[in-house]
Structure formats: structure tokens, C-alpha cells
């Protein structure tokens, strides 16, 4: 009985989310009490569906770019030839993380203009660290006798990386991507302050016009997306780890 | 044939392997035995160049092992290690197919070889081939590890404490399996262990190492009968010595004419086991049977006791 309860809850959340994005009108009576002076209860300056898709696209593009760069960097510094760059790359990635996203936006706008670009830059820099850290941990803690066997079998450095190291690191790297995606989903809302088309637009519109219904619906969609995507990636991670006989907590 | 000529390995100031020379005859098992830190594993790893020597040459069938790129050399040499090191993300069949795949064998040949090895190791290819290593028992994992090392039909197999992680009953079985497979394929095996019992049981020749040097390299009987110095003698263990010497001989070589009462002992059992049987049965003699169950004579306590001392 208990095993399918979480799955059922997630399914209900997904149905609710899709229904709300596709046909927000149905939920108008629920949000109406949160508005004042006859203000609209449902965001009316654009389609919620389009904004959600654009929001997801922004996060996807930034995460894919961050994954490629972070994993490549982690591979580079775990090779014998790149070992001396390890401290440097660590501090570089840490700097990316310690910049507040708003500051990145403020600095990026003069350089690349308003719109999606500064948001992508901020999300990219923000996504690097968790993926890099996890990839580094995974690649430096591979089981010694497995690596010994790979060398002893006559695999070249490249073959060891592609056939053994990366597959074995996949679950942990995936964990980093998951963190990065969730941070990105939340941070992308700030992008709307520099005119990126994201769900932040709804929240900001609500804040400007003192409309609690707008703030709530923007926030809830982002939260529901984050929860569902987090769970989905966790499931993939568990599957990958289980195949290797490793249990994740 | 493997010729190790004046091999030395130094890490900074520490000499791990010190001017070692050994010749290992083809189709034999050489066991390198020593305490931990004696340099035995380093010596083994220099044969397939997982470690590069500071000086000296290792020749395989007359060719310097540095004459081909290291990864190519390793594909031609089997390598089995303690804790087997199976790839956890690959199935049993994929694990065994590792080296043939690297060598670019075609699919049918790989499948035939994997099936052959799995059958040889009493693992049903249909049932176990698609499983992942963590679904197997320790003994099965060890067998897959050796099967993987043998997959590309190497002439030489290097083994680093391959039975170290097994419990005693499975270990004995694994040792018997290895001996049978060595006979079948005629592989030259170099096995590293710290267990003198295993060395005496498995080795055609034993090299005893301490502090990077080979103290004695000889047949097991020679090592037991005439240890080169105090260290070898300690390692042999004076209280075990007569029994180890007996364990080298087969019952059929100690058969005396005549009959005896009691359960017959097979002729290919070790003399040590026969003595144990005799002592436990409380009889001075027991009959001996050959492979077909035919009685061929008897074995006596008196006869075995004589053989428990070097001639």
C-alpha cells in the first residue's frame, strides 16, 4: 500500500501542473480571493504554457553547457597531465558559485544586452560547481582494483575513460546535474529582471501590481517543476547505481 | 618462456625489487611467495609493465617486453588480481569478453570463447552471462575474474593473490580448477601469494622473496628439504614441513604390494590425505584403488612416515 503512495502523489502533482499550465482558467475561482480591486486572478500578459516552456529551455541549455564544461574540466584535471591544474580549476569554479546571480546579471547586461543571454550566463556559472565537484569526487574515488584490472586488460587511457571511468562515475555526476538543475530552475526566475522570458515574469508582475495570485501561481509552477524534475533525476540515478550493485541513500 | 634478467625497481631511495633474475619455463606454474612488502607484486607487475623497472630486462619468448606498446603487451598477457576487479557496470559475459573485444575479435568468436570459458568454470552461460557481478557469490566472481584473464587465449597468465579473498573451501576448489585449466590450455602461470601452503600445492617452482631479493628459486620439494636460509625455513614452517612434503606426492607413487582391510583410497589422492585417512581410521594400512576402482595395492603408515622426510 505504502510503496505506491509517493508515486501517486507525484502523478497527482504532475496532472495538476499540466492542467494548470494548459488551462489556468479552471483554477480562477481558487485564486480569486487573493486579488484586490477586481485585478485579474490569472496571469494575462502572456501564456503560462509558453513561459513554462521558455523557462525550461533556459535551464536546459544552461545545464547542458555547464555539464559539458564541468565534466570536461573534471576529466582534464584527473588525468596525470592535468593534475597540476586541479587547485586552479577548483578556485575558478568556486568563484563562479560565489558571485550572486543578480550581480552576474548586472555585469552581463552591459556586455551582452538584455534578454535571455545574461540569464544563461548566470545559470551556467551557477551550475558549474555542483557538477564539477561531483564529477571530481566520482573520478577520484573509483574502486582501485577495477582500475587496475582495466589497465591490466590492456585498455588505453581513452578506453579506460570511456568504458570504465565515466560509466562508473555516471550516478554521482548525475547527482551533481540534479542539484544544478534545481538551482537553475529557481535562479532562472531572476532572469526576468533583465527581460528574459521565464516564469519570473509572472512573479515580478505580481510584485509590481501587488497581486498575490500572480506571485503564487508563478512560484508554485516553478516549485512543482523543481520537485518533479528532482524526483525524476533521482530515479534515473538510483537505477544507474542499482545496476552496479551500489545502493544510494 | 619468461626470462627476468637483473630487474631492479627503485622508488626514490627505496629499492623494492633488487637485481632479480628468474627463468620461468613454458607451460609451468611459478609461484612467487613472500611477506607483504617483499616486492613480489611489484615484480609481477613489471612483467606486464604496469610498473616500469629502473633497470634490467624482461623477455617473453625471447622478445623484450618493451618492444610493443604497453597496452598491446597487456592484451597478450592474462592478469587476475585479488578481489577480481570485475567491471560492476558490465555483465558477466561482457566482463569476460573485455580483452577479445579490445583485440577486435568478431562477435561469433567472442561468444564461442565466452561460452566455452563459462562452461569450463561451471557457470551456465544462459543463466549467468547476462547477470551483473554483484549478483554472483564471491567464488563465482573469482572464477569470472580468471575467465576474463584467460579470454584472449594468452600464453602467460599473471595472478596476484587471486584466491586471497576466498574462504578455505572455495579456495581449494579454485586452486584445483586452476590446475586443471593450466593443464588444458598449457598456460604459463606466474602466481604471487603469501601462503606457503598454496605455493607448495600450485607451484612447479617456487621463488621465495624477501626485501626485494629472491632468496631461493627451486622446486617445492627442494625448498622444503633444503631451505636456503633461516628466512625460507621460517616461511616453510618446521612443524608443517613433513606434511607439506607428503602433500607433493601421490598415493599411487607410494603403493606397496599386498592388500588391507578398510575403505580404498584413490591412487591420485595426495600422500598427506592418505596419511590423514590412515590415522583417522586407526589402521596401519589401507587398500588403494585406481581410477576405475580396481585395487592396486595398499598404503601403509610406515611407508608414508619414511616419505615424510627428505631423502
Automatic annotation (TrEMBL), chain A:
GO cellular component: plasma membrane
Main localization category: membrane
Keyword Transmembrane: yes
Topology of this chain in the membrane: Multi-pass membrane protein
InterPro entries assigned to the protein according to its UniProt record, in alphabetical order: ABC_transp_perm/SBD, MetI-like, MetI-like_sf
Domain (ABC transmembrane type-1): residue spans on this chain: 52-233
Family statement drawn from the similarity comment of this UniProt entry: Belongs to the binding-protein-dependent transport system permease family.
UniProt-recorded name of the protein: ABC transporter permease
Source species: Mesorhizobium tamadayense
Pfam families in UniProt: BPD_transp_1
Signal peptide: none
Keywords: Membrane, Transmembrane, Transmembrane helix, Transport
Regions crossing the membrane: 51-77, 98-115, 121-147, 168-192, 212-236
One of the protein's GO biological processes: transmembrane transport
Compartments, as annotated in UniProt: Cell membrane
PROSITE patterns: ABC_TM1
Automatic annotation (TrEMBL), chain B:
Domain ABC transporter: 2-236
Keyword Membrane set for record: no
SMART domains from the UniProt entry: AAA (SM00382)
GO BP term, pick one: quaternary ammonium group transport
Domain of life: Bacteria
UniProt xrefs under Gene3D superfamilies: P-loop containing nucleotide triphosphate hydrolases
Entry keyword set: ATP-binding, Nucleotide-binding, Transport
PROSITE patterns from the UniProt entry: ABC_TRANSPORTER_1 (PS00211), ABC_TRANSPORTER_2 (PS50893)
InterPro entries: AAA+_ATPase, ABC_transporter-like_ATP-bd, ABC_transporter-like_CS, CBS_dom_sf, P-loop_NTPase
SUPFAM superfamilies assigned to the protein according to its UniProt record, in alphabetical order: CBS-domain pair (SSF54631), P-loop containing nucleoside triphosphate hydrolases (SSF52540)
GO function terms (MF aspect): ATP binding; ATP hydrolysis activity
Protein family membership: Belongs to the ABC transporter superfamily.
Protein name stated in the entry: ABC transporter ATP-binding protein
